[in-house]
Prior knowledge:
The complex is a heterodimer. Chain A is mostly helical. Chain A is 71% helix and 1% strand. The longest helix of chain A has 30 residues, at 295-324. By secondary structure, chain B is an all-alpha fold. Chain B is 65% helix and 3% strand. The longest helix of chain B is centred in the middle third of the chain and has 26 residues, at 29-54.
Amino acid sequence: xxxxxxxxxxxxxxxxxxxxxxxxxxxxxxxxxxxxxxxxxxxxxxxxxxxxxxxxxxxxxxxxxxxxxxxxxxxxxxxxxxxxxxxxxxxxxxxxxxxxxxxxxxxxxxxxxxxxxxxxxxxxxxxxxxxxxxxxxxxxxxxxxxxxxxxxxxxxxxxxxxxxxxxxxxxxxxxxxxxxxxxxxxxxxxxxxxxxxxxxxxxxxxxxxxxxxxxxxxxxxxxxxxxxxxxxxxxxxxxxxxxxxxxxxxxxxxxxxxxxxxxxxxxxxxxxxxxxxxxxxxxxxxxxxxxxxxxxxxxxxxxxxxxxxxxxxxxxxxxxxxxxxxxxxxxxxxxxxxxxxxxxxxxxxxxxxxxxxxxxxxxxxxxxxxxxxxxxxxxxxxxxxxxxxxxxxxxxxxxxxxxxxxxxxxxxxxxxxxxxxxxxxxxxxxxxxxxxxxxxxxxxxxxxxxxxxxxxxxxxxxxxxxxxxxxxxxxxxxxxxxxxxxxxxxxxxxxxxxxxxxxxxxxxxxxxxxxxxxxxxxxxxxxxxxxxxxxxxxxxxxxxxxxxxxxxxxxxxxxxxxxxxxxxxxxxxxxxxxxxxxxxxxxxxxxxxxxxxxxxxxxxxxxxxxxxxxxxxxxxxxxxxxxxxxxxxxxxxxxxxxxxxxxxxxxxxxxxxxxxxxxxxxxxxxxxxxxxxxxxxxxxxxxxxxx
Amino acid sequence: xxxxxxxxxxxxxxxxxxxxxxxxxxxxxxxxxxxxxxxxxxxxxxxxxxxxxxxxxxxxxxxxxxxxxxxxxxxxxx
Lengths: 691, 78
C-alpha cells in the first residue's frame, strides 16, 4: 500500500504532467485511470504530502488536491466519455492491444499497480458501462480463458489475466477484464462444486442391520403389546413376540390408546419397583393354593388388562385410593354415588396432589405388580381340573367371545390352555408382564374373530373383577353357560359388593340385567374403556385385594373397602358400557387436544405422547374443578365466576402484574370469544358485552 | 397456521359438571376455563419441547411428555 500511497504523489505529479500532455489517447486513458485510481486511493490513503502537510489523519476521505482539478471528471460517465473521445482508436481488437500494450509497458508498473489496486478498487468502483460492455465482449473469451486459468491456480490467475488478455487496449479494459474475471473464480469454483463428488456409500452391514431389525421388532412388539393388546384381534402370531417381550409390565391394552400411552411411561416408573414385585410374588405364591380354579388364569389376563388399563387412567385415583383407601371410581361412572366418590377422590387427590406423581407411580406399580402376581397365580393354577374347564370356558367365553360363539370358546379355550402352558413355561421369567401379555395376547388372538372382542376387552375389566368373584363361586359359575358367564361377571361384581357379607353367590338377577347390558354394548373400545376405566379400576383394586387376601375373610375385608364402590362402579360401568356410546365420561375431543398441543409444540409428536397428554388433560380438569370449587366455596357462592377463574390463573402464575388477563385473552382466544369476554366500548355509550 | 377452533363450551361445562355436579358456571366463565386450558396445554407443550430438545430429539416422545406433565401439573395447582 505504500506504493499506492506513494503513487498518488507520483501520480499526482505525473497526472499533472500527463494532463498537460494527454497527447496520445492511450496516455489520456491511462491518465484518467490513474486519476481514478488516485481518487480511490486518495480516499483510502490520503496523499502523503497531504498528510504531512496537514497531518490530519481524518483527511483520508478527502481527495488529493491534484485530483481536485479532475473532480469535474468525477462521474465515471464523464471520464469515460473523455476516454472514448480522446481515444478513438481504442478498440478491443488485438492489434490495438499491441499498440496500447507498448506504451503501457513502461508504465506497466504503475498500471500494474493501478490494476492491482484496480483489482481491489475497480471492482468496487464503477466500471464505465460502455467500456464494460465492450470489454465484456472481449472479456468473454478471456473469461473462458481466465476460467481455465482460475481452475489451474488461484495465484496464477491475476498475472495470467493481466498477461493473457490479448485485448487489453487500455488498463481500463484490462482492469475490467480483471474485474470481470474476478467473478469468474466463483463460477469456476461453483462449477467445481457442481461436479458430483463421489458419494461414499457405506456398504450395508447385513448382520448389523438384521440385528437392529430384531431389536426394533422387539421394541415395537413390546410397545405394540401395550397399545394394541386389545387391538390385536388379528390373531397375529405375536404370541412368540409377546412371549419374548421382556418388559416388566404388560401394557394395558384397552382400546384407549391414552391408557396405553400412559401405561408406557408408567411402566418405566414401575420398572423400578422390582423389589416390591418380589414381595408380591411371595404373596402370590402363598395365594396360589387358594386360588380355586383356573378361572383366575383367564380372568388374570382380563383383570390384568383391566388393571393395566385402569392403572394408567387412574393412577392418581389409585394413589388417592391407596392412600386414603377411598375407592372412588373414575369420573366415568354416571352414578351420582360414583360422583360422590369421585369428589371424595378429588378431595383426596387434591390433598395428595403433590404426591400424585409419586403416588401414581407407586400405585401403578403396586397395581401392576398385583396384577402380575395374580397372573402368576393363575398361570400356576391351570391344573385345577374340575372346575377349570368349565370355568375356563366360561372365562374364555366371557373374555374372548360373544355369547353366541360357543365353538370359538372351545377353540379359544384350547388356545388359552396353550397360552397358559406357554405362560407357565415362562413363569420362570421375572417378567410377568410377558405372561400377562401372552395370555392376553392369546385371549386376544382367540377373540380375533369376534367382533365384540373389543367389547370383551371392555368387559374384561369388569369381568376381571367378576372373575375374582367368580373364582370363589366357581361352582355356581361353572354351571352357567357362556351367557351366564356374563352374569357371573355381574355376580362377581355383586359378590364384591357382598364380600363383607361373605356372600359368594352372586345375584343372578343383577347379572342378568348386566348381561343384557353387556350384550347391548357395542361401544367403541374407547368409550368402553373410558366407561369401564373407573369401575374397572375400582374393581381391579377390589379384585386385587381379594385375590391377594384370597381368603373369604380377607376378601371380605378387602371387599368391604371397595364394596361401596365396586357395585356402583361396576353397575355404572356396565350400564355405561352397554348403553350404546353411553356418554363416556365427557372428555374433550381428542382431536381438539391434539390439534392445540401440536400447534403449541411446533414439532412432531409421537402418538404415545398424545396419550400422555390426554391423560394429563384429564388430571388437569380434575384439579381445575377442585380448585374452582374451593374458590367458589370460599366466596360462599355456588357459581363459578370469572373472578374465580382469574384468581386461579393468578395463582398458577399465568396472570401477573405484568401480564393482565385481557392480554392473555386476546392472545389465545378466538375473536368471537374475545368479544364476549372483553368489554369494548362502542358508540352511543354502549359497552359490549354489557356489564 | 391453524384455524383457532372454537372452544367446546358445552363439553367444558359437562366436564366440570361431571367432576363437581353442584358447581355452576357463570355465563362466560367457561371461556376462561378454555383459556386456562389452552394456557395449560401451552405450558405443557413448551415443557415437553424443552425436554425433547434436551434429549436431542426432534420429536416429542412419551417420556418427554410424561416428565413435562408432572412438572406442569404441579405448577397448575391453585
